[in-house]
Structure formats: C-alpha cells, structure tokens
Amino acid sequence: MLDMKSKNQTKKCISCNKMLHFDLFHKNKAMKDGHINTCKSCISNTHKEKRKNDPNIKMKDKDHYAKYKDHYKDYRNNKSNKEKLTSD
Ligand SMILES: [Zn+2]
User: Rounded to an integer, what distance in angstroms lies between the CA atom of residue 71 and that of residue 77?
Assistant: First the structure.
C-alpha cells in the first residue's frame, strides 16, 4: 500500500518518458490526475525551441501577409477600375 501511494505521486512524462514527481509537472484541472502529461523541464525546452524558431515564424507570417496584401491591392485596383468604368 505504501509503495502504491508513492507510485501515485509520480507521473510519466510523455515527452522525455521519465517517471517524475508530480511537483515537476504543471497542474491542470482538466487532466485526470490534475497534472499535464509533459514535465516542466520539457515544456521549458519546448518554449526555448519555439523562441529560437520565432524569427522564422514571424518572417513566414510577414511573407504571407505581403502576399495577401498584394492580392488585396489587386482586388482593390480591379474594383476601382470597374468603378471608374461604370462611373464614366
Ligand atoms: Zn519531460
């Protein structure tokens, strides 16, 4: 019984596959055991990775926005041309 109790205080991290104490997991009421499945250190690693990749993501967004802006500009030009044609 005592062994089981101590077992219940650990949880396997799905990211590093280590059995870790609940203290090393962030709490989340939505989870069955009240803790998320990824340990704190794995999450902070993920955040670091994300931050490292952030400039690329931003550049991609910018690229996408530029494309969209051009598309929108074309649409607006077409629209204003049409308006010109109809008003003339
Ligand atoms: Zn982990």
Answer: 10
Tokens of 45: 């690693």
Distance spanning both ends of the chain, measured CA to CA: 90
Tell me if 16 sits within 8 A of 25, measured CB to CB.
no
Ligand 1 centroid vs 45 CA: distance in angstroms?
Answer: 9
CA–centroid distance, residue 86 to ligand 1 (Å):
65
Show me where the domains of the chain are located: 2-87
d(CA 10, CA 5): 9
Residues 20-69: tens digit of each pLDDT: 999 999 999 999 999 999 999 999 999 888 888 876 666 677 777 777 77
- CA 53 to ligand 1 centroid distance, Å: 20
State which residues have CB under 5 angstroms from ligand 1, the bound ion.
Answer: 13, 15-16, 39, 42
Q: What is the pLDDT of residue 54?
A: 75
